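Hypothesis: this fold can be encoded by more than one sequence.
Test: take the structure tokens below, design a sequence, compare later.
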């Protein structure tokens, strides 16, 4: 109850320097996650080629009924 209104109020007490630091840290974390995602994607591609199978999900494909 009312917890969602507390967070915006906390930002009123954070200095611009602290906000800039927070933004920098979040941007670095985002870049790291992008690199991690790229690495995992490459691993899936390589594994699929080596095993000669399709690993990625086809989002448009319908499941077969048994």
């Amino acid at each position: 109850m009312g917890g969602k209104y507390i967070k915006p109020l906390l930002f009123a007490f954070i200095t611009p320097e602290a906000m800039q630091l927070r933004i920098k840290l979040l941007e670095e974390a985002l870049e790291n996650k992008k690199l991690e995602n790229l690495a995992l994607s490459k691993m899936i591609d390589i594994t699929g080629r080596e095993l000669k199978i399709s690993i990625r999900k086809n989002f448009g494909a319908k499941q077969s009924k048994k």
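The radius of gyration is 22 Å. The helical segments are 6-11, 16-51.
Hypothesis status: open.
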